[in-house]
Amino acid sequence: MMTALHSEDCQTNDLNDSFPMAIESLRFTLDNSMRIVFTGYYNGFNVEVRSVEEIALLYHMGCFGKGSASRSQPKAAQNDVTPRIMRKRQFLKRNYWFKKFDGFTGTAEANSFMKDIDGLTSKIIGDSEKRTCKDVIDLVSSDEDDAEEINLTHNSERFQNHDKEDIVVIVPNSESEEENYFANMKPKCCLNKVKIQEKLMLTPQEAFFLLYGLGCLQIVNLDNTLLNIEKCWDLFTTVDKKFVLKYIVYHYYRSKGYVVKPGIKFGGDYLLYKEGPGVTHADFIVVIKSEDKNDGWIATLGHVRMANTTVKEILIVEVIKPSERVVKLPQDLKLYSIQELLLSRNLPVTINEDD
């Protein structure tokens, strides 16, 4: 069954007001008396918030972003002296990083993450050939891990010159669910030489909404200069050709009170939550209809089956462009509108009255 929903114009902000919109998805209301301005750093792909206090407040405010070392909600910083628990494989990998990159003072380029894609591809192919009898391909351990062993000697003098935060508890790897893991566990205390800072990663749509829609975020570019609204818009539209459509849809549903998260896991563009990822499951999978995306009936049925399996509904969204020939963005975002199509799967039930 297909249901056409009422379309509305995309709300935009008044540049003379810091917090012009009443967003129901925010946990607490922002107004002009609360001069909260968060700081984000553009890293070439997305925007990261580094302050621990800002991370906690920004995520609590409206479930914005994702923790860089967490599945979704960023983990709170440990204030106690309880050592962290780490698997042996992860500990060996961090030691490998420490030996390889210790003392490195160079500045990473924006596309440095993509330079090793050929090496990663070769590693995947090589591991798959070596481990044809196994279902798991090792993408974690390095070539030096097999020859490296952990010093398991308990010596209190080793930890005297280090903070308690540097001490971690190493537990064995769990390679199979059938083995008696806890019976053979022999945890050991070791020094963690590599600390990975938890960051809040904002998508370009989330970052621009906080900058433009709420006025509570300032974005620092790669050259340590502040980006205003126009420069940020030009940067994001250059990096992502579909940023305009994605942001209009994101802004629209945020304005309606939904918590909007990426929906690639379920084959869509966005997931819509009424309360948030940590409270309830998503209610809708949003699929943005674009000119260069040819979605036939097979793709549509796939979306509907995915939504039915995960107890969700599909929203096909089309962005209606304004009739004006000359449109200046982002000032004229209010001229765009959204048309929604709700897809649901109804199974006919045949009732035999003779039974």
UniProtKB/TrEMBL annotation:
The keyword tRNA processing applies. It is an enzyme of class 4 (lyase). GO terms for cellular component: cytoplasm; tRNA-intron endonuclease complex. Keywords: Lyase, tRNA processing. Residues 243-319 form the tRNA intron endonuclease catalytic domain. Its EC number is 4.6.1.16. Belongs to the tRNA-intron endonuclease family. This is tRNA-splicing endonuclease subunit Sen2. The lineage of its organism: Eukaryota, Metazoa, Ecdysozoa, Arthropoda, Hexapoda.
